[in-house]
């Protein structure tokens, strides 16, 4: 059953199990999906290349089996089960089964699948004629839909009107943000003029009022920075130094914003991004492409402001550049799963102006391949790249580094590894919150290549290249 | 105002000024050292607050960008070469998923299965999962033993870094040095009773110490316990005495005889049970002598019949024989007889009354006293581990405790008993205080995985028969089936068909499909470990 290989012909390119797993909204869904990745519960399964889809009936606890359909182009899912997870375990199980070769190729979709797939095809056709481009969807969430997606009908007059309206909106926005930043600047200077003493006990109540005014001025990113101050003030011993550092960096931003017109371009873009000007994916894609074979070194999801953020770290094999591709989704919704750690892809990357290392994937050249050579650097070189990145963007708080041949190490007399030591005898400390055990386990005390994020407090290891391949930590 | 002080400033001085407020203490950041001071000198004056903030920003970014490598760090000593085979990616993935669910009942049961299967296949856990595995190992002894079997060289090396991990693994000797259970601290050549772990240890530690000693040197353990017996507290006597079951022998009899007259009832019961399990003990002979006075064979209407009279021991006598007080609602004399029979060696009946276990169990018992007699025999079969008697009693179907008797039999026979118990459950009596499934579960729990032949079809037909009548008590039976039935495709298919045949609202339906899922999970797990 599971041993039979589907005929090759025009079978849709089957995904690897890693690719399927990357779609899952959480670990329990993966586990549940794996349970269902057996022929047992499934009937009437099938797959077609055109439309690229997989479907099947899954026997659940009820009498009628669930109808599960996956449109591989989206990917998009439909399942008659009541789960609110997305994709549900049935969709994951079906994809895993398909990935393992357990779904036979058929000429056309089953009736139950055909109806939904047709309606999707019709909808897609409608939206293409309406002129929306699908390139950026899901890959770069903040930019999508923030500005200007409504534009784009055929008539040039209409287009010009729309452009003018967009420009007017952008100007109004810049004005409001300028006012918000100036307001924040005054507030910051007031804090330091009257003194920070007592900020740890006062609960920093006026922070919320200031943040609310910034939200009104559409400067959500600044507002977030101001709200974090309350936590810094309440962070225990040594808080005055940390609070002053945060206030100083915010003041640096407001001061830079007040001189935005005078700043040279990459720096001005950095300031705009840090203040929270929306960046359109089109604009990022319009920057020069950096084509390379990009090795996917780490994928990590976290939840920020009720959004799941996926950070994928890439390293260019020939350029040696690091890049971070972000995608966003509400909890339970699928994230971009096209970048699989431990694989590589030949593609054009477009870097956000002034926001290194953030990038967007543009044109892809061919199918993803195996991981290529990963050239790490020593500690000194990694620190040089961090210094260079800070020189361009002083607000930077994390920077991906790839350290070659490092060993977990400890202070003499310390019984817990707290740093990574390279062959030259240079070491970098791990950040206080980073636990060393997984890295220690995979290294076995022998040199490994480590992918990590350098932060002002130290390293956060993300993954390691060992004799067993790339391992997420 | 002291702004003209030429002493070099530090970031802390900026912090001090910010705390007080620049209205009270302005600073001139040009006094900051090095490049920061030089840059700060060029900052626009005017607002002292802005000046301080701008200088602080310079200092902060300067410090962040100027971080230097640490020197003199000691590299971790390298782990030894791994001799064993490490789990492949699919098996590693599955283990990772199981570890994510560890702590749930289902997750722990499956994790135990994975670890056992990996150990059987000679596969080691992948290094990246070792920290999570060691963490799980600290939670229970049974898990620690399983983790130790798949931790490999790397796992033992890693465990040394944390005392809790090292402690969890150290109780289990590494693979290859199969010297059995963990030894206590190295034995001194002198008197083991002087070992501080025993002489001054906490109760749990002393128990472990004595158990370990008993495993290696039963006589020494008995001597140690006998020496301190009189000075042990009641609860310690109760906790320590059962350890003698391991390696029980005729030499233990004197100590058990002492314990049989203990002040504490629980100690007397343990002693009586141990004495009953001890072949040829004085206690057994005495009990047999008394019991035989009350059971004889007569010929009634041409049939051999067992005639039973009830003893009437006075309390002192009963106590000397280790008969515990009769539970409420049980006749004292019936209770006494049952205990005398239980304590008597089973061979006595065969020799004295004539016939083997099967013949004797099949004999009719006068005055409906068979329940008392058979209960005594069942108890004896259990303590004396007598398979022939257990088999005969199970076949007669006159005793209630099937599970305990089945445990005396080899696994294949246990499965037959369990299958018969399943076949006998017609789905009724679900509202009674002790539903049949409670007994079923106990019988089935005694059959080790994988369940042999007659059980799979029995489980399937049982599921179909119980149908809507099933209550919550039946669910653990189905769960256990998922964990222990053979995980081949045909068993899974049979279970799925049974689930499909159940009505939608049958309480058991989700559990039966769940059990089928578990079978497929296990099959894939084994394939990955191959």
UniProtKB/TrEMBL annotation, chain A:
Biased composition (Low complexity): 140-149
Positions of region (Disordered): 127-161
Keywords of this entry: Metal-binding, Zinc, Zinc-finger
InterPro entries on file: Znf_SWIM (IPR007527)
GO molecular function terms noted in the UniProt entry: zinc ion binding
Domain (SWIM-type) ranges: 66-99
A Pfam family: SWIM
Superkingdom in the source lineage: Bacteria
Identification of the protein by name: SWIM zinc finger protein
Origin species: Kineococcus xinjiangensis
Automatic annotation (TrEMBL), chain B:
Taxonomic superkingdom: Bacteria
Residue segments, region Disordered: 169-201
Protein name, UniProt field: Uncharacterized protein
Top-level taxonomy: Bacteria, Bacillati, Actinomycetota, Actinomycetes, Kineosporiales
């Amino acid at each position: 059953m599971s041993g039979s290989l589907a005929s090759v012909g025009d079978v849709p390119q089957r995904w690897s199990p890693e690719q399927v797993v990357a779609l899952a909204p959480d670990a329990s869904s993966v586990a549940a999906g794996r349970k269902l990745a057996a022929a047992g519960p499934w009937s009437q399964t099938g797959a077609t290349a055109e439309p690229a889809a997989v479907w099947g009936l899954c026997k659940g606890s009820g009498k009628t089996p669930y109808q599960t359909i996956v449109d591989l182009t989206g990917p998009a899912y439909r399942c008659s089960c009541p789960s609110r997870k997305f994709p549900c375990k049935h969709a994951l199980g079906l994809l895993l089964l398909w990935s393992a070769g357990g779904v036979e190729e058929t000429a056309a979709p089953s009736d139950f699948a055909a109806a939904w797939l047709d309606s999707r095809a019709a909808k897609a056709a409608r939206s293409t004629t309406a002129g929306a481009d699908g390139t950026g969807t899901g890959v770069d969430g903040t930019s999508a839909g923030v500005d200007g997606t409504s534009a784009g009908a055929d008539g040039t007059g209409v287009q010009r009107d729309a452009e003018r309206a967009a420009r007017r909106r952008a100007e109004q926005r810049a004005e409001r943000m300028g006012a918000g930043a100036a307001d924040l600047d005054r507030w910051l200077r007031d804090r330091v003029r009257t003194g920070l003493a007592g900020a740890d006990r006062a609960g920093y109540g006026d922070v919320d009022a200031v943040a609310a005014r910034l939200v009104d001025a559409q400067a959500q990113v600044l507002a977030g920075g101001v709200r974090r101050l309350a936590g810094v003030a309440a962070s225990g011993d040594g808080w005055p130094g940390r609070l002053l550092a945060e206030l100083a960096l915010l003041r640096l931003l407001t001061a830079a914003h007040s001189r935005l017109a005078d700043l040279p371009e990459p720096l001005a873009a950095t300031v705009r991004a840090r203040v929270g000007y929306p960046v359109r994916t089109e604009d990022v894609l319009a920057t020069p492409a950096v084509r390379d074979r990009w090795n996917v070194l780490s994928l990590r999801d976290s939840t920020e402001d009720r959004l799941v953020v996926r950070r994928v770290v890439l390293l260019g094999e020939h350029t040696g550049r690091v890049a971070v591709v972000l995608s966003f989704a509400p909890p339970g919704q699928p994230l971009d799963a096209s970048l699989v750690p431990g694989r590589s892809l030949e593609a054009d990357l477009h870097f956000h102006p002034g926001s290194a290392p953030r990038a967007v994937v543009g044109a892809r050249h061919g199918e993803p391949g195996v991981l290529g050579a990963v050239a790490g650097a020593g500690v000194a070189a990694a620190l040089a790249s961090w210094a260079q990145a800070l020189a361009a963007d002083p607000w930077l708080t994390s920077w991906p580094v790839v350290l070659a041949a490092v060993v977990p190490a400890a202070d003499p007399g310390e019984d817990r590894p707290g740093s990574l030591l390279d062959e030259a005898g240079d070491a970098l400390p791990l950040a206080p919150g980073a636990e060393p055990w997984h890295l220690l386990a995979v290294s076995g005390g022998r040199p490994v290549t480590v992918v990590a994020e350098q932060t002002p407090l130290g390293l956060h290891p993300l993954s390691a290249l060992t004799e067993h391949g790339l391992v997420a930590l | 105002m002291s702004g003209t002080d030429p002493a070099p400033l530090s970031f802390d001085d900026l912090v001090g000024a910010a705390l007080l407020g620049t209205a009270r203490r302005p600073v001139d950041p040009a006094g900051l050292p090095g490049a920061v001071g030089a840059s700060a000198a060029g900052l626009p004056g005017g607002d002292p607050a802005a000046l301080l903030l701008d200088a602080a920003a310079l200092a902060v970014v300067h410090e962040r960008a100027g971080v230097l490598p640490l020197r003199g760090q000691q590299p971790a000593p390298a782990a030894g070469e791994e001799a064993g085979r490490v789990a492949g990616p699919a098996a590693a993935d599955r283990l990772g998923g199981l570890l994510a669910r560890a702590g749930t009942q289902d997750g722990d049961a499956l994790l135990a299965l994975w670890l056992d299967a990996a150990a059987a296949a000679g596969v080691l856990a992948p290094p990246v999962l070792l920290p999570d595995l060691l963490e799980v190992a600290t939670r229970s002894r049974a898990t620690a033993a399983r983790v130790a079997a798949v931790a490999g060289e790397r796992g033992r090396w890693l465990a040394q870094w944390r005392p809790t991990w090292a402690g969890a693994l150290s109780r289990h000797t590494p693979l290859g040095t199969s010297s059995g259970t963990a030894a206590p601290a190295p034995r001194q050549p002198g008197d083991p009773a002087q070992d501080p772990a025993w002489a001054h240890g906490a109760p749990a530690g002393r128990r472990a110490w004595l158990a370990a000693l008993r495993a290696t040197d039963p006589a020494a353990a008995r001597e140690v316990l006998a020496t301190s017996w009189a000075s042990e507290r009641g609860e310690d006597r109760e906790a320590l005495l059962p350890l003698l079951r391991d390696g029980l022998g005729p030499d233990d009899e004197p100590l058990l005889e002492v314990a049989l007259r203990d002040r504490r009832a629980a100690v007397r019961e343990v002693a009586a049970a141990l004495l009953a399990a001890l072949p040829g003990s004085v206690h057994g002979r005495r009990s047999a002598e008394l019991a035989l006075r009350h059971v004889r064979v007569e010929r009634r209407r041409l049939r051999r019949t067992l005639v039973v009279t009830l003893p009437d021991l006075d309390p002192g006598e009963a106590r000397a024989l280790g008969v515990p007080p009769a539970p409420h609602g049980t006749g004292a004399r019936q209770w006494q007889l049952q205990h005398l029979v239980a304590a008597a060696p089973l061979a006595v009946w065969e020799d004295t009354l004539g016939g083997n276990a099967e013949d004797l169990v099949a004999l009719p018992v006068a005055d409906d006293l068979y329940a008392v007699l058979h209960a005594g025999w069942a108890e004896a079969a259990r303590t004396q581990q007598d398979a022939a008697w257990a088999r005969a009693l199970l076949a007669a179907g006159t005793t209630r405790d099937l599970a305990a008797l089945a445990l005396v039999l080899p696994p294949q026979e246990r499965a037959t008993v369990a299958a018969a118990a399943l076949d006998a459950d017609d789905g009724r009596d679900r509202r009674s205080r002790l539903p049949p499934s409670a007994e079923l579960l106990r019988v089935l729990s005694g059959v080790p995985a994988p369940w042999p032949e007659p059980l799979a079809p029995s489980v399937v037909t049982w599921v179909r028969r119980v149908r809507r009548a099933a209550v919550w008590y039946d669910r653990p039976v189905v769960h256990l089936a998922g964990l222990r039935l053979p995980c081949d495709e045909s068993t899974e298919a049979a279970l799925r068909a049974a689930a499909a045949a159940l009505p939608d609202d049958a309480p058991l339906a989700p559990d039966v499909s769940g059990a089928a899922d578990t079978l497929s999970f296990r099959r894939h797990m084994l394939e990955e470990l191959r």
